[in-house]
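[09:14] KT: can someone run the structure on this one? pasting the chain below
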Amino acid sequence: MHTVTTVNVNGLRAAATKGYREWLAATEADVVCLQEVRAEEKQLPQEVREPAGWHAYWAPAAAKGRAGVALLTRREPDAVRTGFGVAEFQDSGRYLEADLPGLTVASLYLPSGEVGTERQAEKERFMAAFLPYLVGLRERAAAQGREVLVCGDWNIAHQEADLKNWRANRKNSGFLPEERAWLTRVFAAEGGYTDVVRALHPEQEGPYSWWSYRGRAFDNDAGWRIDLLAATGGLAGRCVKAYVERAATHGERWSDHAPVTAVFEGLPG
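[09:31] RB: done, C-alpha cells below
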C-alpha cells in the first residue's frame, strides 16, 4: 500500500500551533503535499522544517507571506523540481514535484482568483500554461513507465456535487463555467488524469474539503471540494480508498481545509 495526503495548511506557522504537528506525527501517509505554507524554511521551527522521519522539500513564494508549497516524503526522492517551466510562476510557490520509484508526485496551489480583478487574470494565465504541462508530464512519465499524481488545492469545484451552495456561486471564481470546463479537460482524454476521490465516490455530495471560517459553514457542512488528487490512468486504477480527514468539531480544526487522503495498492516502495 502507498498512502498520499494533500492539505492546504492556511499558514504553516499558525497550523503548527493548532494541531498540524500532532496530525503529522500520527499520519500513516508515505507522502504529504502541503499548500499555502506562507513561510520560508528559515521562518519555520526546526521540528516543522525538518520533521522526524521525513524528507522535506519547500518551494516558498518570492512574494513574502503568500502561497508556498511543500512535499514531505518518507523515502528520499530521486529528483525534486520547482515550477513547471513558465517564468511568471517559477518562484510563485505554487508547484513542486518529486520523483519516487515508479511515481512522480506533485504539490499544487492553483491561484484562487477573484472575478474582475488581476487575480482572476493570473489564475487564467496559470491554467492556460498548466494544462499543456500536465499533458507533457503524463506523456514523459508514460515513456518512462511511471505514473503521475498531482495533489493540491486546485481552487475549482468541478461539478455541482462539489460545493454545497453551487447556485449562489455560479458567477464566482472557483465555480465559473470556464474554470469548470478547464478542469473537465484535465479529467478528459486531453489531460488524461482521474479525480480519484470522485472516482471512488461518484454519487456523493462532496466530500467537501474546505469550509469558510465565517458563519457556521463547517458545522452545517456547507463546503467546497477543491482539494483534489489527480492521477494518471494506471495509478487511478490502483486507488482503493480515498477520503477527507474532517475534524470531529470546529474547535479541532487546524486549517480551514481538511487533509484529503488516497490509498493505492501495487506501487513500488
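[09:33] KT: thanks! The domain at 2-264 is CATH 3.60.10.10 (Deoxyribonuclease I; Chain A).
[09:34] RB: yep, looked fine to me
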